Structure formats: structure tokens, C-alpha cells
């Protein structure tokens, strides 16, 4: 006796509960509109029972309201003699099957509808595995809702019975379980993707490389974070911090003779001054090393990303040349009188031996 009790308890815990939605579509309702109470999952079976004289209609649609296109499955039309499948409400019949007395006004008749992923819509009777009517749609409509109605003055009583698979063990779903008529479906929380039919894996939001300017991406749940390189800010490190904003536009550069440049965050100096080795002070230079303000901008541009001790022609004056230094004190050096810089020879040579390039 004790063993039997244990068995019954185990059965009740394992088997999902059967839930029935019982509704009627009344005689007075001559407007012939669907009730869109039931949801569907593509690939799963839709089952129902109906008791009516004639004209039991099932609608399959992406929307929970009468709209076209939609599938209209009519069972027992034309005085309970024909069944058809349509692709529009009251549209042309795509398939017609003679089904005399398929419905009964005194007893429930059970049916199933299956929609395969290949586009075949099949309609069969409860207890039979073969369909009595089917049609293949090369352009299958999305189906998320099931509607039902009787038509043309026929009273209908409907039973939509379903095992709620979600009521036991969450349907085996790792995250969320959604019950549907004839089936159920597992879904995942935001930031996750379904694997197989029950498991969820977290998405890597860094896959799309959302962080700009060499920022480092951190994968989070349904989100990401960017760790920005110095000088950059914003959700995606897309905004340049203007370091020169501080100290009345001088940033960390010499307050008297410095010139702050935001994009590279470098300091230059006013004419007659040279950048100190600290990178921000401006000091009086030796005669040869004077860089004028316009020259400073041009030199900073040509020296950008050049290794230390690169020699380049002066951009405006070929009686001088430029030494690039990564420590930000690029210098201009004058060639001896009557010589000019030769980039080819990397030295100052007699003016008549070279053209200024
Ligand atoms: Ca179900
Ligand atoms: Ca993630
Ligand atoms: Ca900046």
C-alpha cells in the first residue's frame, strides 16, 4: 500500500497537468469573427475538440486579430459536407476535401493541425495519425496565434485541452518555459541564446568590438563595458577628453608661453621658446633651436609617430632640418651658411649640390 502511494505521488510530480479551455461560439454571432485566445509554436501540434452543426473555422496567424494573409481552416462547411484550407479569410479554397458529417451537434469531435517547417499544413482527426486534408505553402506564413469561430449561424462548443508542460520542473527549461496549445517552448532571459531546445548560453556582447580608440571591452550580462585608454571617454570611448580645457585652456602646458594641443595632448611653445624635457615647460632655447609657432605645428605633424632621432627636411626652409624626438622636444637645426639639407644624404650639403625637397 505504501509503495502504491509512493508510485502515485511520483506520477503526479512527473506528469504535466491537463488544462482545458472550454468556450462556445454562439448562434447569434453572425459576424463571423475569430477569437484569438490561443498561442501556437511553429512545428508543434495544435489540438482541439468541437461540437457544432457545421462550419468550424480555425485561423492561424502572426497576429492575434483578423487580418490577411492568414490561414483559414474550415471543417464541415456547406452544410457539414466539405472541408477546405485557405490563405485569406474568406479567400479562395486552396484545397477542398469532401467530409460528410465530420462534425456533430451532439458530441465533441477532436482534430489536430500540424504545420511543418517545410510548409505543409495538415489536418487530421483525433486518434488518427494520418491527415484527411493537407496543403503545401512554398511561402509559409509565420504562425503565432490560433483563432477559432463557427460561422453562418452555427453554434459551436470548443475544448482546447493541453498538457501544461511548464507546470512540472519548468518543462526542463533552463530559464523560462512558455506553455502553448499542444506543446511548450523554452526561452532564455535577455542576453542569452537558446541552445538546442532547453539550454541557454550567455551572449558575448564584446563580439562586435563596440569599444573605440583601443578601449578594452568587458562582457557583461546583456551588456558590456568599455575601459578607455587615457584621453578617451564615453560609453564606447568615442569621446576625446579635451585635456586643454583646464587652466584657462593651457592644460598642463606652460601658462605663459605654452600652446596646448588637444588631439595629441602635446604642448608647444610660443616663438622664441623651446619645449623643456619635462614636456610642458617652455624655456629660452639656443639660437639654432628656435621654433616659430607655425613651424611648431608643421613639425609636430611631420614628426608624428616618427622614431627618435629621425632627420627630416624642414617643411618651409631648406636651410634647416628637423630632429624628431618622442620626448616631445622636436628640434629645428640650422644648416651652416650656404648649405641646405639633403634628405638623401641625411646631412647639410653645399647648396649647389642639392635641390630643396
Ligand atoms: Ca502545452
Ligand atoms: Ca554577455
Ligand atoms: Ca585629448
Please give a handful of descriptors for the protein shown.
single chain; 357 residues; mainly beta; Jelly Rolls; Laminin; 3 domains; six-stranded antiparallel sheet; 29 strands; 9% helix; rod-shaped; binds calcium ion
What does this structure look like?
The chain has 357 residues and is mostly beta strands. The protein has 3 domains: 16-176, Sandwich (Jelly Rolls), CATH 2.60.120; 205-240, Laminin (Ribbon), CATH 2.10.25; 243-353, no CATH class. Helices cover 9% and strands 40% of the residues. β25 (310-313) and β26 (320-324) form a beta hairpin. The model has no long low-confidence stretch (mean pLDDT 84). One calcium ion binds next to β17. Residues 300-357 form the Chitin-binding type-2 domain. It catalyses: Random endo-hydrolysis of N-acetyl-beta-D-glucosaminide (1->4)-beta-linkages in chitin and chitodextrins. Residues 1-20 form the signal peptide. One of its GO terms (biological process) is chitin catabolic process. One of its GO terms (cellular component) is extracellular region.
Can you give me a brief rundown of this structure?
Its EC number is 3.2.1.14. It contains four helices and 29 strands.
Note the gap between the termini.
Answer: 107 Å
* Number of DSSP helical runs: 4
Q: What is the number of independent domains?
A: 3
Poorly predicted ranges: none
**Which hetero compounds are present in the coordinates?**
calcium ion
Largest sheet report: 6 strands, antiparallel
Question: Would you count the extended β strands for me?
Answer: 29
CATH architecture of the largest domain, please?
Sandwich
The portion of residues assigned to helices is under 10%
Strand order of the largest sheet: 1-12-3-8-9-10
Helix/sheet category: mainly beta
Enzyme class: hydrolase
Keywords: Carbohydrate metabolism, Chitin degradation, Disulfide bond, EGF-like domain, Glycoprotein, Polysaccharide degradation, Repeat, Signal
Signal peptide: 1-20
Domain Chitin-binding type-2: 300-357
Amino acid at each position: 500500500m505504501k509503495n502504491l502511494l509512493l508510485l502515485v505521488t511520483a506520477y503526479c510530480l512527473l506528469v504535466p497537468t491537463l488544462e482545458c479551455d472550454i468556450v462556445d461560439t454562439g448562434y447569434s454571432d453572425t459576424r463571423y469573427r475569430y477569437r484569438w485566445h490561443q498561442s501556437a509554436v511553429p512545428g508543434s501540434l495544435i489540438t482541439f475538440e468541437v461540437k457544432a452543426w457545421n462550419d468550424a473555422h480555425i485561423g492561424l496567424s502572426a497576429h492575434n486579430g483578423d487580418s490577411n494573409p492568414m490561414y483559414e481552416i474550415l471543417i464541415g462547411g456547406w452544410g457539414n459536407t466539405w472541408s477546405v484550407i485557405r490563405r485569406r479569410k474568406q479567400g479562395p479554397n486552396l484545397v477542398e476535401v469532401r467530409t460528410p458529417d465530420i462534425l456533430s451537434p451532439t458530441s465533441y469531435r477532436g482534430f489536430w493541425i500540424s504545420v511543418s517547417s517545410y510548409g505543409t499544413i495538415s489536418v487530421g482527426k483525433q486518434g488518427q495519425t494520418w491527415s484527411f486534408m493537407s496543403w503545401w505553402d512554398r511561402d509559409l506564413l509565420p504562425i503565432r496565434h490560433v483563432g477559432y469561430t463557427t460561422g453562418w449561424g452555427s453554434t459551436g462548443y470548443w475544448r482546447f485541452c493541453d498538457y501544461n508542460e511548464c507546470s512540472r520542473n519548468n518543462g526542463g527549461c533552463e530559464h523560462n518555459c512558455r506553455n502553448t496549445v499542444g506543446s511548450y517552448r523554452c526561452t532564455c532571459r535577455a542576453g542569452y541564446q537558446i541552445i538546442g531546445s532547453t539550454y541557454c548560453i550567455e551572449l558575448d556582447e564584446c563580439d562586435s568590438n563596440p569599444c573605440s580608440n583601443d578601449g578594452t571591452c568587458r562582457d557583461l550580462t546583456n551588456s558590456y563595458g568599455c575601459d578607455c585608454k587615457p584621453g578617451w571617454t564615453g560609453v564606447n570611448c568615442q569621446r576625446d577628453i579635451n585635456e586643454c580645457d583646464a587652466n584657462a585652456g593651457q592644460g598642463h602646458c606652460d601658462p605663459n608661453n605654452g600652446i596646448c594641443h588637444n588631439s595629441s595632448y602635446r604642448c608647444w611653445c610660443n616663438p622664441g621658446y623651446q619645449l623643456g624635457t619635462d614636456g610642458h615647460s617652455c624655456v629660452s632655447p639656443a639660437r639654432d633651436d628656435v621654433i616659430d609657432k607655425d613651424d611648431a605645428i608643421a613639425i609636430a605633424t611631420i614628426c608624428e609617430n616618427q622614431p627618435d632621432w629621425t632627420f627630416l627636411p624642414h617643411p618651409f626652409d631648406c636651410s634647416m632640418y628637423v630632429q624628431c624626438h618622442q620626448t616631445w622636444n622636436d628640434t629645428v637645426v640650422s644648416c651652416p651658411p650656404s648649405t641646405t639639407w639633403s634628405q638623401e644624404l641625411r646631412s647639410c650639403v653645399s647648396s649647389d649640390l642639392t635641390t630643396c625637397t
